[in-house]
Specification:
Layout (H helix, E strand, L loop, with lengths): L7 H18 L26 E10 L4 E2 L4 E8 L7 E8 L5 E8 L1 E8 L6 E7 L5 E6 L7
Parallel strand pairs: 1-8
Antiparallel strand pairs: 1-2, 1-5, 3-4, 3-6, 6-7
Length: 147
């Protein structure tokens, strides 16, 4: 963007005005005010609490409550936005030999937990995540026999 003025006096007045405005913006605070400590946060900023959690999902199955390993655990949730469109997010993990899966950085709120394992009926249910270290225990059943 280029500015051109027909009169040289007008451009000098505009430049002087800009100089005074920037010099005024950089003036130090008056001596009666106390400087803020370096480690303090501004008072007008609201600190948001740590809303991320670590969900532990324990998957067992059958009549003997045996742990199910290598089961896929899907955690789906909706990240709500006030202005933009809501964003649907999904986290996929697998259970270990003990039938336990850890889902890191899952947000607090409502989440859909789905379990899919070979030889077992699929499972899905909505959970309210209220505790940062919440443990969800899920019991799977065998599918019905097809003749």
């Amino acid at each position: 963007m280029r500015f051109s003025f027909k009169t040289p006096g007008l451009s000098a007045v505009v430049l002087a005005g800009l100089f005074l405005f920037t010099a005024r913006a950089q003036d130090p605070p008056p001596p009666d005010s106390k400087p803020a400590p370096a480690d303090s946060k501004p008072a007008n900023k609201i600190q948001s609490p740590d809303i991320h959690t670590r969900i532990t999902v324990e998957v067992t199955g059958g009549d003997n409550n045996v742990p199910i390993d290598e089961a896929s655990v899907y955690v789906k949730y909706v990240e709500e936005h006030a202005i933009k469109k809501n964003k649907k997010l999904e986290i996929n993990v697998k259970t270990n030999r003990d039938g336990v899966a850890h889902v890191p950085d899952a947000p607090m709120g409502r989440a859909l937990v789905q379990i899919v394992a070979d030889g077992w009926k699929p499972y899905g249910r909505w959970f309210d995540i209220n505790d940062p270290k919440q443990i969800i225990k899920i019991h799977l059943e065998r599918p019905p026999k097809w003749y």
